[in-house]
Amino acid sequence: LSGLPVLTYTVSSERMDDEALSWFVDNQVAKRLLAVRGVGSVARVGGVTREVRVELDPQRLLALGVTAAQVSRQLKQVQQEAPGGRAQLGGAEQSLRTI
């Protein structure tokens, strides 16, 4: 990051818990910052990372002919993030993020 401009900010709220505030930053603040010309990326440090817990039913897997490894591979495939970039859309430059 040497030589590149960096903005660091702190967010707090008396009305939102950590989970709600993290969601707000990810889905509102970050999206608006990414729409600003020249912003290449936004990363939240801290807060709450949302997780999904997957519990497999061995009988159901057997009935479907699916293995736990196949489920794991599919989950890894759909949750990957790839780098984005910028594009001209409707005459304006927009930030792109591939999820």
TrEMBL record:
GO molecular function: xenobiotic transmembrane transporter activity
Domain of life: Eukaryota
GO CC annotations on file: plasma membrane
SUPFAM superfamilies: Multidrug efflux transporter AcrB pore domain, PN1, PN2, PC1 and PC2 subdomains
Pfam families the UniProt entry points to: ACR_tran (PF00873)
PANTHER family given in the database record: ACR FAMILY TRANSPORT PROTEIN (PTHR32063:SF77), PTHR32063
Protein name as it appears in the record: Uncharacterized protein
